[in-house]
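hiii so um. not sure if this is the right channel but i have a protein structure encoded as tokens and i wanna go backwards to a sequence. like what aa goes where. can anyone help
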């Protein structure tokens, strides 16, 4: 099996397939993603989320903010299971979604844990990390604000944020408040979308 040109092992493929089946089952009862995207689960959500690990395939400790239906946090945790290293702390304040995330991690033997708390309270509970992810959560300025307890003044922590076609406007807005190094990774799944890699975060105002 391949995702975005990346060869996926049989074990990881089986984990991803089990996650997809769980997701479809739970999505009938709770709103995990927009219903209009359910029929395109593999391309729109799983393949898209897998790009995070493809960009940063190290056994890193991650914090995934606003994990929702598990994108990209559970997908990253599934890939880390193959490395037998790294960990994903999934932060999701909605208790029903958090219950789904715990079930998905447990049944796929993925490397992660769920924190059913507000993002603003997560740093105290989770502690330091090497990477932060978020998808379909907020604009870049807000995401950097959420991530700042982990990233501010820390050279070894990076943020990886999925963004759509309006990402240049979001970058300009964020630079009014923050200074940071930026790498733009073009999406292999969604045309005109990117994954923004943020590092060396400094506060301007």
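sure thing!! here u go:
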């Amino acid at each position: 099996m391949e995702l975005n040109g990346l060869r996926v092992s049989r074990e990881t493929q089986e984990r991803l397939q089990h996650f997809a089946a769980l997701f479809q089952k739970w999505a009938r009862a709770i709103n995990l993603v927009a219903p209009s995207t359910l029929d395109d689960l593999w391309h729109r959500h799983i393949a898209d989320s897998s790009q995070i690990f493809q960009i940063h395939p190290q056994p890193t400790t991650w914090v995934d903010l606003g994990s929702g239906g598990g994108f990209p946090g559970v997908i990253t945790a599934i890939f880390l299971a193959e490395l037998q290293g790294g960990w994903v702390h999934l932060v999701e304040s909605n208790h029903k979604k958090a219950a789904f995330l715990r079930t998905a991690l447990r049944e796929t033997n993925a490397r992660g844990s769920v924190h059913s708390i507000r993002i603003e309270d997560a740093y105290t509970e989770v502690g330091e990390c090497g990477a932060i992810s978020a998808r379909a959560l907020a604009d870049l300025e807000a995401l950097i604000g959420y991530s700042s307890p982990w990233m501010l003044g820390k050279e070894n922590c990076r943020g990886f944020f999925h963004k759509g076609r309006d990402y240049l406007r979001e970058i300009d807005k964020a630079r009014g408040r923050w200074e940071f190094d930026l790498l733009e990774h073009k999406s292999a799944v969604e045309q005109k979308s990117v994954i923004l890699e943020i590092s060396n975060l400094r506060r301007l105002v």
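oh and The mean pLDDT is 92.
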